[in-house]
Amino acid sequence: MNLQEKTLREGTACVNESEQKHPWWYNLKYLLLGIWFGVIIVKAELVSWFRIQEMFRFESFHMYGVIGSAVIIGIISVLIIKKFNLKTIYGESIKISPKEFRKGQIFGGFIFGLGWAMTGACPGPLFANFGYGYTVIIVSILSAVLGTFVYGKYKDYLPN
Fold this sequence. Notes:
Blueprint: H1 3-10, H2 28-43, H3 49-56, H4 62-83, H5 104-119, H6 126-132, H7 138-154
Protein name: YeeE/YedE family protein
Transmembrane segments: 30-50, 62-85, 106-126, 132-152
Keywords: Membrane, Transmembrane, Transmembrane helix
């Protein structure tokens, strides 16, 4: 059974690329893209502890400008996808379902921001920090993994 038949049979909108079989070197493009992205965020000082502290102290517009630009680009991208009914590179429809607001998002955002302010490291560039030579970031990486594990274990008891 090929991928398209499997998709139709299971009634799914799409099949994750991870379910497709490729040679090992096929994923090198993702490694190269990740390295390129890491270089960009390091050069733009987005992994800088000092830049992050400036943001949380409202002393600089640098980080707010980057985050705000990303939000605006995201909004425009979603509007374009919806307006022109764009499809994935495999020809599948892109469906963006409405999101439901829950009080757990407030608690989670607060904890996320608190951790970000305390460590000076957003989870996104943790590995870029490590690659740049800030080996102390291992503490933040292990804390993020532990936090993810604890959330997964106790999510049914949390207000999410």
